[in-house]
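Retry 2 of 3 after timeout on previous attempt. Resubmitting structure tokens to design endpoint.
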């Protein structure tokens, strides 16, 4: 029993006319007649009674018809499902993020992507930076988002873009001499004790803090924070700590901290990585394009890898 035989049978059953069934299937009438005859021979039962004036289903044809419709519907549904995966409108995107990307950026991008591809499942997993980098290389995740500038990928198959950033903030005690300022420079705090995130606890955020200080050329005395929460909302219980570094995503829970922007503005970059050679490239490519082109959350800054920034930039002189 072949698919084309069932297709011809169902068309004749719907039209009760071999000529009209042939027109429906865009084939010749002899082809439809032959397909139905072959099906009848295989089933050893007539499916239609044929006269010069009418075509009608036999009892065997009536019995077969719902099965034929079900099989044809399943095949059509399977073809549609495969096509949606091919076009990036179905499937799964495995998204790995380091903790600093989890509160704001990752959910924002997932929501933006669901507007483009509502039938694609995004599996979001928080991972630590060394594990995340390895997961992209070996295909455990399809897309990775982390804060900080990363070294070039070891694998030539991995693509990387610095596409978004948050402004660097500082957290001060209410009695700190700079607490009433609208903004503060890192140089003003260069001799005050900084409470720093431990590299072994949150490596991506610790890396970003070090990079921000190195870029500013500021190297204050530093002590490890004892707070094991990413946002370090209880840092002030360490009396030796004068200040901490923050970004907006981590500042919301600081009810007793005076949070002030750093001046001049110093962006904390976020990096997107993916492997274009892995499975389901259409869905992954659609997510990557969304991440690199969607509007960023309020207060976030587009970086060179963001397509919106690239389109808005004036052409370079030749």
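Retry 2 succeeded. Sequence:
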């Amino acid at each position: 029993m072949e698919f084309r035989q069932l297709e011809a049978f169902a068309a004749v059953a719907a039209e009760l006319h071999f000529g009209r069934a042939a027109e429906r299937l865009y084939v010749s009438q002899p082809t439809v007649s032959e397909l139905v005859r072959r099906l009848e021979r295989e089933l050893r039962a007539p499916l239609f009674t044929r006269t010069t004036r009418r075509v009608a289903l036999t009892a065997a044809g009536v019995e077969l018809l719902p099965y034929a419709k079900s099989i044809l519907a399943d095949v059509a549904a399977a073809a549609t499902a495969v096509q949606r995966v091919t076009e990036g409108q179905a499937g799964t995107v495995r998204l790995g993020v380091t903790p600093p990307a989890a509160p704001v950026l990752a959910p924002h991008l997932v929501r933006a992507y669901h507007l483009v591809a509502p039938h694609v499942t995004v599996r979001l997993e928080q991972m630590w930076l060394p594990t995340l980098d390895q997961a992209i290389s070996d295909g455990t995740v399809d897309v990775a988002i982390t804060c900080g500038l990363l070294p070039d990928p070891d694998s030539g198959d991995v693509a990387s873009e610095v596409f978004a950033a948050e402004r660097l903030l500082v957290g001060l005690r209410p009695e700190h001499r700079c607490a009433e300022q609208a903004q503060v420079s890192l140089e003003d705090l260069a001799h005050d004790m900084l409470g720093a995130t431990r590299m072994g606890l949150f490596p991506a955020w610790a890396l970003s803090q070090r990079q921000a200080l190195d870029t500013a050329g500021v190297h204050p005395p530093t002590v490890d924070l004892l707070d094991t929460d990413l946002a370090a909302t209880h840092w002030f219980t360490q009396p030796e700590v004068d200040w901490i570094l923050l970004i907006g995503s981590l500042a919301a829970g600081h009810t007793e901290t005076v949070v002030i922007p750093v001046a001049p503005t110093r962006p904390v970059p976020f990096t997107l990585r993916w492997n274009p050679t892995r499975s389901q490239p259409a869905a992954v490519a659609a997510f990557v394009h969304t991440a690199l082109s969607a509007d960023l959350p309020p207060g976030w800054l587009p970086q060179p890898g963001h397509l919106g920034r690239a389109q808005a930039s004036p052409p370079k002189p030749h």
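Attempt log closed. The chain has a mean pLDDT of 90.
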